[in-house]
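Weekly sync, protein design subgroup
Attendees: M.S., D.O., the rotation student, P.L. (late)

Item 1: inverse folding check
M.S. brought a backbone from last month's batch and wanted to see whether the design step gives back something sensible before we order anything. D.O. pointed out we never logged the input encoding, so this time it goes straight into the notes. Structure tokens as presented (138 positions):
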């Protein structure tokens, strides 16, 4: 019989724990996928900044779970131009936790889904491609 967690004493993962969870999700992705992510910076933040919320036309800071910023491989950005910021994937901890609280998915699955989806923008992948990568990550 599986042991159940004692929810009375558990806390939401801290930013550092969430970063570790995100790194573990990345490490489980297929090697050929990770290799193509060379140079992509993955950042975990509590919320998107106000500029991002305005740009994405979000009504609430909880509307955005993740974001890809940069010029992806699909747009021919395999080598950055001088002065160009690195391609970045943002995972937003508090909106992800809010989503988790309202859905019947594990937190690890949600983090993997958001990570794959945002990295997928870097590659210009279809939703079907992203689903296959998520499945391969287990």
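Designed sequence read out in the meeting:
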């Amino acid at each position: 019989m599986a042991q159940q967690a004692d929810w009375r004493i558990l806390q939401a993962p801290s930013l550092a724990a969430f970063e570790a969870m995100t790194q573990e999700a990345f490490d489980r992705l297929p090697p050929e996928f990770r290799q193509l992510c060379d140079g992509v910076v993955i950042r975990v933040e509590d919320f998107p900044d106000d500029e991002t919320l305005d740009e994405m036309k979000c009504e609430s800071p909880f509307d955005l779970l993740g974001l890809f910023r940069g010029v992806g491989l699909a747009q021919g950005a395999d080598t950055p131009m001088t002065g160009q910021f690195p391609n970045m994937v943002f995972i937003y901890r508090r909106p992800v936790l809010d989503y988790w609280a309202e859905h019947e998915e594990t937190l690890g699955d949600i983090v993997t889904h958001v990570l794959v989806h945002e990295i997928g923008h870097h590659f210009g992948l279809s939703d079907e491609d992203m689903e296959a990568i998520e499945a391969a990550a287990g």
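Discussion: The longest strand covers residues 41-45. Residues 15-74+85-137 form a domain with the Zincin-like fold (CATH 3.30.2010.20).
Action: P.L. to compare against the previous round before Friday.
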